[in-house]
Amino acid sequence: MNTSPSRQNVFLRFFRRLASPKYFYDFAGVWIPWLGTLALLLFLIALYGGLLITPPDYQQGDSVRIMYVHVPSAWMSLFIYVFMFFNAIISLIWRIKLSDIMANVSAPIGAAFTFLALFTGAMWGKPMWGAYWVWDARLTSEAILLFLYAGIIALNFAIEDRQTAAKATAILIIVGVVNIPIIHYSVEWWNTLHQGPTITKLDKPSITMDMLWPLLVMTLAFKFYFFTNLLMRARLELIRREKQSQWVNELLR
Amino acid sequence: MKPRQQRMWFVAIIFSGIALATVLVLLSLGENMMYFYSPSQISKGEVPRDAVIRVGGLVVNDSVVHDDKNLGVRFKLTDTANTITVYYHGILPDLFREGQGIVAIGEIDAAGQMKANEVLAKHDENYMPPEVADALKTAAEGGSMPIPDSHTHK
Question: Is A233 a member of any domain?
Answer without folding.
Answer: yes
